[in-house]
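pipeline/complex-builder :: batch 7 item 3
reading input block
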Amino acid sequence: ENREAMLNSKSNRLTEALEEANRLFDGVCRAREAALDAQFLVIASNIGKEKANELHSEMSAFDSTAFAEDLLTFMGINRTEVEESDDSEDVPGGFLPSDAWQTLGEEAAKYFRRAPTFHYMMGSFKSDPPVPKQRIERQKKASRGKAERAMPAQLKRMEESHQEATEKEVERILRILQTHFENDPNTPISFFDFVIDPNSFARTVENMFHVSFLTRDGLARIKLDEDDLPIIEPIKPSEEGEEDSRAGARNQVVISLDQKEWK
Amino acid sequence: QVSELVQFLLVKDQKKIPIKRADMLKNVIREYRDAYSEIVNRAGRTLQEVGGVRQGKGRVLGETPCGLTLVPPQVFGLQLVEIDTKRHIYILINNLPHAEGEYLCRGKEKEKMGLLLVILSFIFMKGNSVKDSEAAQCHPSLTLIPRKQHSVFGDLRKLLTEEFVRQKYLETTPIPLTDPPEFKFQWGPRAEKETSKKDVLNFVAKIQGKDPTFWASQYSEADAAR
């Protein structure tokens, strides 16, 4: 019970407790009491170990408060009374900008030897001999509904993990779409603005692939605006029911995009 | 078989959950069991071969989330490391020291690495283990009250005790006979491989604008660990 008091390096409570336990043990003649004693020994030895640890770290005391303060400074804390924006994170002493954790993460990356993750494999694995014989199979899901050019190839055996990664991506894209829409519900989002990655053709195709899942599952819809250009918007859960009952609501769109066009 | 294993490992690594030998045998190697070690060695070598990720033209194997081009197959710069020799469990780490942030441009990954580094630093500086009740001290915005959501990380408790533990960045050990039950956080085997006490001490020193030798015992421990 008095764990904290015992840990205090200046206290002799642990020693006293041990001496007391010794005295008591002499009078023990029942098993239950012996068991309690054993339990006490375990606790006492744990406390002893912790005390030893504390002594060790006291040699070079680490001031966690100072560390936390300096961390906040590094992360760009705004120490004024006024809240910057809704995005700011409320911490004691001020507000952190919304990209505070990004800033920290940027720095943190330098201290780890973390392997980059591959989320998307295009084409077959071309390597020096032996050349693997791979059965590339179109994902069954993707062949229904909207079709696009350059569907990602996929090894049969890796279907499972690839599927999970895809689902996660789709979820992520849905969230992004919803956030954009929430921030500005009256401005339609251009489909091409949404999917095109100006730096990567492959990524663009990947985005289109994931968006197709959203439309297939009734989570988003693509319409044509006055200029006949496609726009995309998320479908609110309350609308889902209506969509199904409307006849002829489904359309098929084939979008072809090659690298030149993308550029 | 080797290239299949390489691809299998890369896909499995996406979630940073360590890879078991049993899975490798079942899904890729199968009937070639006898050649298992040979295949694994060659896969390891393939992953290692010189280079790293760079921008440029070349045959595209795939894209990392940031759209960098990878030129197969010799340009991985990764290392296959066994973190549990008894149960034969592996992870992939980067051979190239101190990868730049561009690898992690998926926002959430970067933010988590920041949090992780802060926690690992805290654990090390406090003597290599920290009680769960203390863990939130390392950053003012953290709290480990269950179900209280952090604005960036959501369920922090889950992130620390489940995700980071499954990925082997952290380890939790119950403290016996505590009531209510408490546990302690320590570095996990992935943390040991992907970073070092020295690196982490350098981080703390940088943040606090001091020399690493300011913390004498941590400094000598970090030095001895190399």
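note: The longest strand of chain B covers residues 78-84.
queue -> next item
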